[in-house]
Design brief:
Number of strands: 0
Largest sheet: none
Shape: globular
Distance between the termini: 11 Å
Radius of gyration: 20 Å
Number of helices: 17
Length: about 425
Amino acid sequence: MLQPYRDVLTRPGALAFSGAGVLARLPMSMVGIGIVLMVSTLYGSYGLAGRVSAVYVIAQALCSPQLARLVDRHGQSRIMRPAVAIAAVGLVGLVVAATTEAHEVWLYAAAVVTGAGIGSFGSLVRARWARVLGADPHRMHTAYSLESALDELVFIVGPVLATLLATGVAPTAGLIVPLVAMLVGGYWFLSLRRTEPPPAPVGSPRPKGSVLRRPGMVVLAIVFVAMGSIFGATDVATVAFAEESGSKGAAGIILAIFALGSLISGLLYGTRTWKRPLYLRFATGMVALAVGVCFFFLVQSLVALAAVMFVAGFAIAPTLINGNGLVQDLVPRERLTEGLTWVGTSLGVGVSVGSSVAGAQIDIHGSHAGFLVVVISAGAAVLATLAALRTLRGDGSDHVHNSVEAESPSATGGAAVAACEVAESVEPKRS
């Protein structure tokens, strides 16, 4: 089962940049929940915690695509080295402002600086895979599946670590580790120049407009905003539910279980080739995720919530993998970093909206009001996906479908099959 992953990781330089990318991405799973835990503890307000987290993510959403355009134009190391330093300064300022219980405007200011420079290392890693593997669709599918699984590994370790540090050491401790990881992992990654995609040739025309001018990219952006709202509201609601249940420290463990389900499905998904078109698999995963999170609103205990999250998590990684795969078909190769960043940025915007709205509702009505925001966000994601199927089909499905017909397709195992049950015509892949 692991042979496809061994194949891509043995490419020169692949293991190094993928490993460094994991460390550099640790902040994406720790900063959000670290802000919520720190601010809610020191200021006594989930609403404020959600707003500060939202400001951070919005700043990242606005600035990351611009950083990505500069990266495509001038190279990863030249742009991201100073950007990482700026993000580190902002994160230090956020910790200092919270520790001194400064006016909330200083929290917002520090969050803006952090979000403006942090960028999207997941997009940088995926762009390197495109350079190393070229146009091989099967190996790119495996590489993207690997990175999505590693994303989930980050989301397993990150929330638990942030929660343990914030509740067991100090409220601000949950932001210290991501600060160190960003500096060490980020500069390690950027030092690996051999696998860095080349910048645009000197004198080449500057790209005009945004990749969002492509209808398929607009669709993906809208869907990923709604999907991000699911995740943002889930984070805040889970922390509040755990506190109401008398065990706030369990929130990180429960969120890690959510990510564990996604990690397992992502690894299984990446070992197989699928017969169904990519746009249909993307839609199926989105529907499966929406059905799964609807049960969050019904749970009455931490154990039940963990169980539901584990099963629902199986729909996450395949959906994200398929979304990133659609981007590769929708944008020119020389603008791949920008396209991938817009997907991640849209997800981040949704996280900010979901966490902010859920935080405000939780302050008034309790944790289940936050889970209601999750359900509403899931419904919006499904509606947007189904309404835009024709657009996605016209933009990218033919290329993807033809690229996988040469080999015998296969379903994934376990609950990942349930997440993509409509892909009924599948057989085991033969080596």
